[in-house]
Amino acid sequence: MNMKSIDNTRGTLIMILGFVVATVVSCVSVYSAASAAQDQPHMQYALSALEDAKSELASAKANKGGHRVKALEQVNQAIAEVKLGIEAASSTGNLPLEGALMPASPTGDQDQPHMEKALSSLQTAKSELASAKANKGGHRVKALSHVIQAISEVKAGMEYAEK
Fold first, then answer.
1. Residues 33 and 71 both lie in one domain
2. Residues 105-114: pLDDT tens digits?
């Protein structure tokens, strides 16, 4: 073999090795993320409930005095915090515990179906966040705060629409 052929072979082997390493790292990352999500069912249920609430709020009539939009903003922030909490818990399994949480509140009237469904989903998210382990780097508590504020805005919007 001449030097040029050896250099080409070496370059090809380095490229193949790089590809194999990148593939292994990618597979491990995907597995870790999936495993982290499976290890956190309450956070996953809360995320699902928040996505449902987001959908219902987006479908509700815009006659809520701005409260529907504020609730949607709080839901989006809660979604972001839940995702950060899942990530935090998966990257370090022993984060400090977070503060005490409030219990879920009862639902309101049925005149506004999208707002009522959003409220129900938010209360589910609140309950799931309250049940989740407190190892989310403070993101669970922040998400819960946003959910509580969203619940308040949904209720205020429902009251506004009934006037």
1. no
2. 444 445 689 9
Same domain, 74 and 136: yes
The structure's pTM equals 0.66
Domain tally, the chain: 2
Contact 43, 122 (CB under 8 A): no
> What CA dihedral angle connects 139, 134, 104 and 36, to 10 degrees?
70
**Which residues constitute the domain of residue 129?**
40-162
Residues 28 and 96 occupy one common structural domain? no
pLDDT tens by residue, 143-154: 999 999 999 999
Q: What is the spatial distance between Cα 86 and Cα 33, in angstroms, rounded to a whole number?
A: 9
- How buried is residue 151: exposed, middle or buried, by Cβ count under 10 Å (0-12/13-18/19+)? buried
What is the helix, strand, coil percentage profile of the chain, to 5? 75, 0, 25
Cα–Cα distance, 102 to 107 (Å, whole number):
15
As a whole number of angstroms, the distance between CA 154 and CA 44 comes to 22
